[in-house]
């Protein structure tokens, strides 16, 4: 079958990586794949070319949409409508920000193929109304969502939490929904994890390294991790904290580290294309987020046997860890509880074999199988 996957571009973010992985999995099963994008630039462009996945770039209709991503997506409506004139067998809208444009183009051209919405994050997260100038825009967007989303052929959510959130906003037949967890490339991750990390701390066997990873943004709540680390380090002087990633909060985190007097034990090496070699050698991976969809980094750490601690945040963390079976869950923002969990797991880590086995349940093969069963049902009626 011919499967089209619609996404903004080829950024290096987690959601985009998952979609490229799915495309790779569909391709391996012998299906024809088209990645339909608005921007063909980005860190994943070379990987997409290497995999032999066809790229289709949608033109933007009006010049004032050349700024923010959301305006570019709106500007792609006419181009996407033209794409639907020669439709694929199935069209997967890959992330929440793309859904309204995908639905408008699909409806405008007469629903020529099944359209599946993949909910990559909580719907309510995009409906936070600003009490000032943006309130009218948000109300209009909410009306569009409520009117258009139920017209899609099928909904797939990347966690149960995300699906229940979407269903709480509007009526949609539950039999036309499915939860399919984001896949991780377990074997590829383990292969790359064998490489040596460049950071010098890993050469000193007399210290224990705590690892965080993600965009340096308020969502990830790294200040809580720093406060927890400072507290834990009062009892364990051998601890070091390393956070992989880039973002606007870099300077804020460095100032906080200085204030907490942990600057010499804290490092921000930036973005790396191979976080897995760090995970494989860290003593603990900590996710301190305020909310998540389904955090791939948590699964990736487990895939290489690294113990994990996570906040019990809104999203799929509790689903991954099965309410604490595979790692402690602590309340969001409570650094004292996070410090206690860190010390507890460092003292008595779970067997790496247990964590690896759990991660394997989120393999690409299983996710591809579930997606294809939905696609075949929509196309062939079984």
Low-confidence stretches: 129-137
Estimate the helix proportion, in percent. 40-55%
Strand order of the largest sheet: 3-2-1-4-5-6-7
H/E element order: EHEHEHHEHEHEHEHEHEHEHEHEHEHHH
Q: What's the domain count? A: 2
What is the residue-mean pLDDT, rounded to a whole number? 90
Major sheet: size, sense and barrel closure? 7 strands, parallel
Which term fits the overall shape? Answer: elongated
C-alpha Rg (nearest Å): 21 Å
Total beta strand runs: 13
Per CATH, the class of the largest domain reads Alpha Beta
Any idea what the CATH superfamily of the largest domain is called?
Answer: Glycogen Phosphorylase B
CATH architectural designation of the largest domain: 3-Layer(aba) Sandwich
């Amino acid at each position: 079958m011919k499967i089209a996957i619609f996404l903004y571009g080829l950024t290096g973010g987690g959601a985009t990586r998952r979609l490229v992985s799915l495309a790779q999995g569909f391709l391996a099963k012998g299906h024809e794949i088209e990645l339909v994008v608005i921007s063909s630039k980005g860190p994943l462009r070379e990987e997409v070319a290497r995999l032999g996945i066809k790229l289709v770039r949608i033109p933007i209709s009006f010049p004032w949409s050349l700024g923010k991503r959301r305006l570019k997506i709106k500007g792609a409506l006419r181009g996407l409508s033209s794409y639907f004139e020669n439709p694929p067998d199935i069209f997967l809208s890959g992330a929440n920000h793309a859904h309204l444009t995908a639905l408008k183009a699909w409806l405008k051209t007469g629903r020529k193929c099944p359209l599946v919405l993949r909910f990559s994050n909580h719907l309510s997260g995009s409906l936070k109304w600003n009490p000032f100038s943006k309130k009218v825009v948000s109300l209009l967007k909410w009306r569009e969502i409520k009117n258009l989303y139920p017209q899609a052929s099928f909904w797939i959510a990347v966690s149960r939490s995300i699906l229940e959130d979407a269903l709480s906003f509007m009526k949609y037949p539950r039999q036309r929904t499915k939860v399919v967890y984001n896949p991780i490339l377990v074997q590829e991750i383990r292969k790359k994890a064998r490489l040596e990390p460049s950071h010098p701390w890993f050469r000193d066997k007399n210290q224990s390294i705590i690892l965080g990873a993600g965009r340096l943004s308020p969502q990830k709540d790294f200040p809580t991790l720093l406060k927890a680390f400072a507290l834990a380090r009062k009892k364990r002087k051998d601890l070091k904290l390393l956070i992989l990633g880039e973002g606007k909060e870099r300077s804020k985190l460095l100032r906080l580290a200085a204030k907490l007097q942990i600057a010499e034990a804290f490092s921000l090496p930036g973005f790396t294309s191979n976080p897995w070699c760090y995970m494989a050698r860290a003593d603990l991976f900590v996710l301190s987020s305020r909310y998540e969809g389904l955090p791939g980094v948590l699964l990736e750490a487990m895939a290489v046997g690294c113990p994990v601690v996570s906040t019990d945040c809104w999203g799929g963390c509790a689903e991954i860890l099965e309410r604490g079976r595979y790692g402690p869950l602590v309340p969001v923002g409570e650094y004292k509880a996070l410090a206690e969990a860190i010390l507890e797991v460092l003292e008595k880590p779970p067997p790496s074999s247990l964590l690896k086995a759990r991660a394997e349940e989120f393999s690409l093969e299983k996710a591809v199988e579930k997606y294809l069963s939905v696609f075949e049902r929509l196309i062939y009626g079984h």
